[in-house]
Amino acid sequence: MRVFLTGATGFVGRHVASCLAAAGHELCCLVRAPERAVHLAEAGHRLVVGGLLDDAAVRDGVTDAAAVVHVAGLIAARSRDELRRVNVTGVGRLAAACRAAPRPPRRFVLISSLAAGGPSAAAGPAVREDDEPRPVSFYGESKLDGERAARRALCAATQLTIIRPPAVYGPFDRGIHEFFRVASRGVRLRLGCTPRAVSIVHGADLAEGVRLALESPAAAGRTYHVANEASHAMDDLLAAIAVAVGRRAFPVRVPDVVVRAAGVLSEEIARVRGVVPTFSRDKVREFLAPGWVCDATRAREELGWRPRFGLHEGLRATADWYREHGWI
Question: Which domain holds residue 40?
């Protein structure tokens, strides 16, 4: 089917584009910077140049599209308002364009985040899709409100499916990559003073979940967590990254108070430089939450989704990719 894909030049979007193309879908990709989309053009995908708030570009993209897969979004920003402009207003305008199209797309797959649902309790059950959302960060709040904006704006002819992934890793990622980079220098960070467990998924496995959600009639109107079945203590995950990198890493405990101070300092440095902070007080609220464990049973049972990468295999492959491309 013809799919209008946003965010195809980003980390998750690259994996989604490859997966959908391999499954035979025809892609039309919204890109802000054509120079970053050479790989998409070379793969034969149609490019529409513009951003989410460019109504003409979005209108062009949804015209004749059988489905929309919306991956684009901000993970970090200079302000709460900037997050909401893209993660809420942008989603609403894309959904409104679908409603206004002569032939509205049949399916709208929205990549949200586990942050929209909020953290799991320290010793409690994993978060499920139907639990009452309790985001703890501006980012999580913006993703939840983006889901609501899509529901409000779409017409009945377009079925909405929401994917809420946990932490995502793999080639092209620059988020968890930082832990690989630090481990490659012989340091294994241990963040915070309280044990915290997290769910995780490889980017290629998340993309397969997106494909299944796009194609499955059962996914209409549903929300899914797409995550490996096993969760991991944060300290164990960082130790596994050090093993994947192949370095004997010296453990360095970073207390909660230092994590909080780092968020403030990073924000101030970014403000002076006029750039988006790589770490912030908003991210601190997520880092120091009790846990980020989600239940992905629904995706397995309704979509037949199964991850291809186990944790250690996926971390090794990711470390090899980083090394091959000079990232570590």
Answer: 2-169+199-228+293-308
Looking at the structure of the chain, the number of domains it has is 1
Determine how many CB atoms are found less than 10 A away from the CB of residue 41: 13
Kindly state whether residue 131 falls inside one of the protein's structural domains: yes
Domain annotation covers residue 233: no
Top mean pLDDT of 119-123, 215-219, 284-288 is at 215-219
Is residue 256 over pLDDT 80?
yes
Q: Are 273 and 280 in contact (CB under 8 A)?
A: no
Whether residue 65 is contained in a domain is answered as yes
Residue 95, pLDDT above cutoff 90: yes
Do the Cβ atoms of 71 and 16 come closer than 8 Å? yes
Question: Tell me, what CATH number does 36's domain have?
Answer: 3.40.50.720
Cβ-Cβ contacts under 8 Å for 274 (sequence gap 6 or more)? none
Q: How far apart are CA 82 and CA 237, in angstroms?
A: 31
Sign of the Cα pseudo-torsion (171, 172, 173, 174, in order): positive
On whether the CB atoms of residues 52 and 96 are closer than 8 A, the answer is no
**Residue 238 falls within a domain, yes or no?**
no
- Indicate the residue type of 2: R
Residues 203-255 have pLDDT tens digits of 999 999 999 999 999 999 999 999 999 999 999 999 999 999 998 888 888 88
